[in-house]
Amino acid sequence: MEWWLVLLIIIGSVLVLLAAGVPVAFGFLLINLVGAELLQGGGRAFHQIILSIYSSVTSFSLLPIPLFVLMGEILWQSNIAGRALGAMDKLLGHVPGRLSFLTVGSGTVFAALSGSTVANTAMLGSLLLPDMRKRGYAHDLSMGPIMGSGALAMLIPPSALAVVYAAVAKVSIGKLLMALVVPGLLIAVLYAVYILVRALRNPEAAPAYDVEKASTREKIIGLVKYVMPLSVIVFLVVGVIFLGVATPTEAAALGCLGSIGMAAAYRDLDLRRFVLAIKGTLTISVMMLTIMAAAIGFSQLLAYSGASRGLLQFVTTLDVAPIVMLILMQAIILVLGCFMEQIAIMLITLPIFIPIILKLGIDPIWFAVITLISLEIALMTPPFGLLLFVMKGVVRDVSMKVIYLAAMPYILIDILVIGLIMIWPDIALALTRFVR
């Protein structure tokens, strides 16, 4: 059987199962079992699948995933985020579009404290959206910044999805986390620029209103007491990796200790909240690790069937520039993002894409950053971007069409950042030179 037909059958079967509502992990596992029976004759092939599952989830490099999730869960279950939001609100004063700026600023800060895009978006939506709607903010300055800055949790470290990517693609977790810092902050800055220009050109889109005056002393106290301590946790996660004094796993553990210590210092860490944080961590971590375990066998199936090798040989014979191939890969991810969730997209595409980019001489860390931004865009891509439905859950009286249009400016900004990284690779790679 031709390699392209085998590849079409395998990928098509996965897509059919996912479209039918089969959970991602079980869909991959079913394809692995059927493929092992039909292509490898069963028997020892099943034993190999078991060994692959065991080795994939017992890897020490995956330990940052539950630790990052636990760190974020502790911060969300306590009232640390709400206090920081209130302190940042007092700092803005009468800035045009102040609530939109508050959304982007707080979303960026919280993204550096939690790798959960859903939690980030839901929290920002429940805390800020009612006031923005009451003030008459335009949809692209109310719902749009919430979805855009909520999605930043997937980029700005700590990012559990980046750890999954690094484990699947076999690249340095520390370098990938550091490579995401500047692009993530650049996206946040461009969001803020868009909001400022939009608010200045059309004041009706973000109507001005009287705000409660806060003295300079109150602003400084709020900043020192509720916002600056969060920088300690960011340093414990990102700073120690940058300085080369801790591995990503050690940094994740330090971040957990920092979040527990901070919640305890604010007297917000009672037994009930801690148990809820543990439950949330177990739910998310088991889901991610189960999907990864099933995906390892999927990549092996592609290799054994000859599909990945045939595709690699085909691609290397094409007379196109590497940048064209890179754009085609990102286009595939964006299309898949219209229908699938991020982990499933990664686990379907990376076993195929990684050998190709290595053969073309493309830096795998640079490629990872661009791919993760594309996956971030997929979170907001109609018709089935996950954050679109999170936003719909927050505002039930707004049509999906309105939510789609609200997300569009922020999708375009993300695409612009991908273009800038393609032109100036050091946007992504500059900080990686400091990581061992």
Protein traits:
mainly alpha, globular
Question: What integer is the average pLDDT?
Answer: 81
Radius of gyration: 22 Å
Query: Strand-and-helix sequence, N→C?
Result: HHHHHHHHHHHHHHHHHHHHH
Which range best describes the helical content: under 10%, 10-25%, 25-40%, 40-55%, 55-70% or over 70%? over 70%
Tell me the β content: under 5%
Helix segment tally = 21
Describe the largest sheet: none
Number of domains: 1
Overall, the morphology is globular
- First-last Cα distance: 45 Å
Number of strands: 0
Q: Please state the structural category.
A: mainly alpha
Unreliable residue runs: none
Give structural notes.
The protein has one domain. The longest helix has 35 residues, at 271-305. The protein is 78% helix and 0% strand. The chain is built from 21 helices and no strands. The chain is an all-alpha fold and 436 residues long. 48% of the residues are buried.
